[in-house]
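Late entry, written up from scratch paper. The run itself happened at the end of the previous shift, but nothing got recorded in the book at the time, so transcribing now.
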Amino acid sequence: MTELSQQWLQFNNAEAIAHAAVHRILLKAQESISHRGVFKLVLAGGTTPKRIYELLSDHQQEWSKWHLFIGDERCLDNNDPERNSVMIKQSLLDKINFPEENFHPINAQLGPEKGASEYAELISTFLPFDLILLGIGEDGHTASLFPGHQHDESQLTHAVYNSPKAPPERVTLSKKTISQSAEVIILVTGKNKQSAVQQWQQGEPLPVVQIQAARVSVLIDDDAQP
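Output as recorded:
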């Protein structure tokens, strides 16, 4: 059984976290491509991830050897600005020469069930991922894994209904899929995360606490630290 490791690293602000995350992503890409000829990265939504993608776009990479996935998606129309895929395209993909076939968005516009089943089938041929970026919500959710929601633990993806944050319907990677990853980076920024971080550090059973992977790095800024 793989030994699990969790490391907490504190930074002055979200900008510092974004730069640190980019550095880690590029190192992991180099390592993965060197060892296996491919880098499989799962992207998150949110303000800090957006800044990470903007910074990433300034780096020359072997983009043809990168495959990009998304940790969760809202069940909205394809071009809805609230979709993570739209933000990722605008902040990263539209700025670099990235092969379209290597970007694997979630077809959440098909609805939670069909979107989840299609994505599970797609990612099954790529697992395990090399690196997954995650955020954390004020309630301790990560991706679209929310407190109090029950899911089939054997699934690679989940159809999400009744999300406490709009829109109510989503598709998310499962805890099982995330925990298979070689490395997970959890981004924690802002004063509004202090309560969730405190619960996390006290061992409350929040979704973010349940993420297990061979290596988990928590990048937290001063504002988020209780």
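The chain has six helices and ten strands.
(Scratch paper discarded after transcription.)
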